[in-house]
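Whether sequence alone determines local backbone shape is best considered at the level of individual chains. Part of our work consisted of pairing the sequence of a single chain with a tokenised description of its backbone. This step matters because it turns folding into a mapping between discrete strings. For completeness, the protein is quoted in full, as a sequence line and a line of structure tokens:

_____
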Amino acid sequence: MRTFIAIPLPAECREVLDRMQQALRAHRAEVRWVAVTSIHLTLKFLGEVEAERIRALGVSLRDCAAAERRFDLRLHGLGCFPTTRNPRVLWCGIDGQTDNLLRLQRAVEAACTKLGFVPEERGFRPHLTLGRIQGRPNLRPLMGAVAAGSDLACAFSVERFHVYKSSLRPQGAVYTILDTIELPHAD
């Protein structure tokens, strides 16, 4: 099954992102928008994983999470991958206690590598994917709105992360939580 590890977003941040997507949709650019209920902060994409490996994965992730603590993040700015001149992915940035986030991501990466999963070659760039650019029409006004930024006032506490199964459907991916890993309270 297609699997990944991610931090969920609280409802209030999804509402902020929904309003942002609505404002960006007004530019009528060719974008395949991510359903706001599906937006998450990916820590590690695993790809195809056999069901019998999920339990061992959960044990390994709980071990790595035990050394971490809960932390706070906030939505921050808009951008594109790879660049605004040649955009393919439209994203919302993350700010706050990003050192804690990077440490957690490295711990998750190490736990997965110990289980034989291929390590990610690209550096971790925390973001929330809002949409994927499908064509060039009306792209300039959209990129203008991205460059102008916006008020994305929403902070959240990272208390847990999930192992998700991703089922691809014609209307978009459907995510199912396979396991939940809680982070310990801060001292």
